[in-house]
Amino acid sequence: MYPLFRFLLATIILLPCFCIKLNAQTNRKEKSLPAITLRTNPFSFLETDGNAMLGLGIQWHPQWAFTIDPGYIFFSAYQNADNDMPDKLSGIKIRSDIRFFFERSRKGMFNTFIAPEFHYKYVTAKKWDQFGINCLGGQCDYYQQAQYKEVKEETGASLKLGTLLPLWGNRFDAELYGGIGFKFKKFRETDIPIGGSFVEEPNRDNVFNNNREGVAYLILPVGIKLVFRLR
After folding, report:
1. Which fold has domain 3-229?
2. Which of 37, 150, 183, 191 could pair with 57 as two cysteines, CB 3.0-4.6 Å apart?
């Protein structure tokens, strides 16, 4: 395992132990808890796999909170507009973290947190491609343009820093965050025509052309989310 990945995994494992010890040595005035929030990413439709996201956050302690952000994937903003047969996407994306909040520098100012985040994505894409039928030794009976289904699965983890900025009132916040991590990809193709084989290797990633499996890809999660406190 690469040194960067060992560092990230060790940090994720040791961070809760460090924070629990730090919390035991300090006294802080608790606010009204538990706090339950709704969360959304206004720019989630611009991600590689465009999605609509609505998440949930629970803060049960002044310094500890949990979030889960599921998203429904339904399109890609990066497909060629001139393509007569665009890919049809469908899937889910889930990000979840356990976050530790540092003590506020002054009442009413922003909260800063550190959090290990876990990432999972499962998406299917209906695509069109050229297939050779009953090919042997490079010779095919005939060629056929046909639709097939590509299944992509991603798993990963990252470590991020973030802050909550009050927008208005006591209920609306903006969450800004950034981090570093890695993810792995798995691909498979189904619904291929009987006796068919790809004329060319399928392009499994239309944006970055990252097609290899079993390879750790660097990810840099960064963004903004809007947070509404229910209670």
Report:
1. Porin (2.40.160)
2. 37
Tokens for 164, please give them.
């909550």
Q: CA distances (Å), 59 to each of 27, 32, 68, 75, 162, in order?
A: 18, 10, 12, 32, 15
For 117, the 3-state DSSP assignment is strand
Residue 192, burial from CB neighbour count under 10 angstroms (0-12, 13-18, 19+) = middle
Name the pTM for this structure. 0.76
Q: Which residues pair with 38 in a beta bridge?
A: 56, 228
What stretch of H or E contains 153? Answer: strand 142-168
* Regions of the chain short of the pLDDT cut 70: 1-31, 80-85, 104-110, 205-211
CB 140 within 8 A of CB 174: no
DSSP 103: P
Q: Where are the domains of the chain?
A: 3-229
State the distance between the two ends of the chain, measured CA to CA, in whole angstroms: 43
Q: Which residues fall within 8 angstroms of residue 39, CB to CB, at 6 or more apart?
A: 53, 54, 55, 56, 57, 67, 69, 175, 225, 226, 227, 228
**pLDDT tens track for 184-213:** 999 999 999 999 999 988 877 655 556 677
Distances (CA, A) of 74 to 53, 68, 100, 192: 11, 19, 33, 22
Do residues 49 and 76 lie in contact, with contact meaning Cβ atoms separated by under 8 Å? Answer: yes
